[in-house]
Amino acid sequence: MDNICAAILFLITKSLTMAPKKKSGSKKTVPPKRSANPDNSEVLKAFAEAFTSRQVKSKSKPNTKAIEDKQIEGNIKFASPSKDIASAISTVDTKSTTYSKLPQDVKKSIQALKSGTRRFHGAKLALTWFPFPGLVTPCADKFGYMSSPLVRLATRLPFTAANRTLMEQLGNLMGDPGRDAGVDSNIPAGFTYVGQFVDHDITLDISSSIDTFTDANTINNMRNPSLDLDSLYGDGPGLDPFLYEFPSSGPSTAIKFQLGTNRNVGPGGPGGAAGIAGMKVQTNFDVPRIHNPLNPPASSNTAIIGDPRNDENLIVTQFHHAMLKFHNKVVDLLVVAGFPGDLFTEAKRRVTHHYQFAVVNDFLRRICGNTAINNALTTLSAPIGSPFRMPVEFAVAAYRLGHSMIRDRYWVNFNFPAATLAQVFQFNRNPNLPILSNWVVDFNAFFDTGVPVPINNKARKIDSVLANGLESIPGGSGIMAILASRNLRRGLALGLPSGQGMAKSFGIIPLTATQLTDGLPANEVAILTSSSSLLLKQTPLWYYILRESKVLRDGNQLGPVGAKIVADTFIRILKRDATSFLNVTGGFTPNLPSAIPGNFTFVDLIKFSGVNQPV
Prior knowledge:
Elements: H1 2-17, H2 42-52, H3 64-74, H4 82-89, H5 104-111, H6 132-136, E1 143-144, H7 149-155, H8 161-174, E2 184-188, H9 190-202, H10 230-233, E3 244-245, E4 256-257, H11 314-337, H12 343-368, H13 370-379, E5 390-391, H14 392-397, H15 402-405, E6 409-410, E7 419-420, H16 421-426, E8 458-460, H17 483-493, H18 499-505, H19 513-517, H20 522-537, H21 541-553, H22 560-575, H23 602-609
Parallel strand pairs: 1-5
Antiparallel strand pairs: 2-8, 3-4, 6-7
């Protein structure tokens, strides 16, 4: 089967990369030009044109009066300064033909989706509304390994009852009370939940077990392994219309996300420059939820979103809400600019590419460092459509760095200056749903937005100490309630290589026993040195990566092994995806409002979405 898949991928890759590269004055890497070969499928052509065509360079300054008139006409407001909106509008292609080129039946179908008609039966819709990988990327629906079979066989811990007990004992100590005091990193706490959101965009394992030794190659990954925001967009407005708000007037493709409402229990959320006095009663700072109007108390309040895991806790739910508003604001920008093409496709393209850019150049550079990211960008080879399996060294070890970054308490807003981790879980569950208006998150305390707040939450240091609240995860019992033990048991069950084995395979000098035990309490050292110091010779990969970060980077960044696993996985994901920002013809430059022109960060995303200001 893998040989067949590889053959299919080769044909797709060939169809996408047949044309030779052209020289460019840009310093950025120019991806292979798409072939004009008439044998290319219509799917590939549509996506190539919509997602990877050359960016429009900034035109002359747009008519400010016309922009203001459009905003008034559409009742559109932006949080960003007018000059930044004008600059972003100047990059919009007002001569786009993407919509006019659509077949008549597609255009008529799109028009019939307006709220007054809502006709889906027999509809013909643009392929660009649907997830690209699900259409043309076979063989990427599995987990696998980054390390070789020889490395794993030689260095992994045997799956024995004794080793399962060791994993549980070690994990039980990692979240002991009092160990996490005074260990903040220099990373804003919002990135803990950016990391969780990103994880839900690329991985979903529903079938592996911690009780049975399992080959990762047999496990299905239920998410597209590409940063395509399928956790946000779902299967698009053609298949998941319940996620979307279809326009009742104006351009028929100006499709936005549905937003949720808040239960009014008083002011909350951001106070802005006015502080606590600026807080307002929030009305639409939640994701949409299922409500039973005939019996409101029986409402499940299940989140109506692309991935239910993004409703796991209050902070990630509120970040998902910010992403919904991000898309909606980009649609507003295109409407004001008078974009004549398919607004939904163009908005999705801009949202996805800016998100991908921020993941690499803001989030990953913070946690991996510039060296690991630059090395992956310049040296890693991953042709478009090349075979890929999500490595468990990443998904089950290195990328679980985020678990150690979780705090036991957060300054959520002026109402709740010391919310416990238990409350962060409690206040996005019944009977506290929809999200209570006074519990709306003030993201100025989670990202460095420049808006003053009493406390700027910092993520905990990346180390082998977890918040005590993670020893009693809501809904779990026994080992399933103790996150560290569960992580270690899963790595054992999947046969991950040891940290030392992974380091040597990368040509990196492994940590010494002294480094691994430096600063640890006596009871933890006792477990590491038991059984003839087994865990100091074959250290579980997740634990090794956390210790490596603490010992070599003071917990503010991943060490060399962890950074390489994370950086290489993400850059491979993006390079092999024909629609990613790395494969935009001529290179990609962010053009949405930002603090630094040509750059885009998660702070820029939060501010453009308007979720850091009282509404």
